[in-house]
User: Fold this.
Amino acid sequence: MMEQPVLGGLGRCSCAFWLAVAFDACGLVVLLAGVFADIFFYDFLIYAGAIVIFLSLIWWVFWYTGNIEVPPEELEDDVGLQKKKEKGLTGVLRRFSSRIRSSVRTNRTIRSAQASRSQHGSQGTVAVNLPMTSQPQHLSTVSAAVATETSPI
Assistant:
């Protein structure tokens, strides 16, 4: 098992940490200047300081999420990098059900294309992009069929 390198006190993404601190400090200075300074645009400074402090939350979220640690074993299972070979009846049934699912999706796509063509009374051909099939040489699109059927009023 590989050992993880020990990170410093700020962890990874220390740049995001320092940007968050800088935004907080600048926002606080601007906000307090608007509160305590006797100038005619104090309201602008108060709002600007509050907005800068609010924007520092972006950097805090970056720093926090950049330091979340997930063990590699859990990550491999989560994103499907570790393919478990299913043996026996379970594997056969899973492969069979995935084939049925893909054929149902294909049939549903074809039926919906035919239904939309019959609703519009279109006699033109409709190209349906089916997964895992080769494209036909002659393609007509729905927009081309509609363009040829429309006549000037």
